[in-house]
Amino acid sequence: MGTKIYLHHGDLPAGMRFPDGVAIDTETLGLKPHRDRLCLVQLSAGDGTAHLVQFDGRSYEAPHLKRLLADPDTIKIFHYARFDVAVLSRYLGVVTKPLFCTKIASKLVRTYTDRHGLKDLVAELLGVELSKHQQSSDWAAASLSDAQKSYAASDVLHLHALRSRLDAMLKREGRTALAAACFDFLPNRAAMDLAGFEDMDIFSH
Question: What pLDDT was estimated at residue 1?
Answer without folding.
Answer: 54
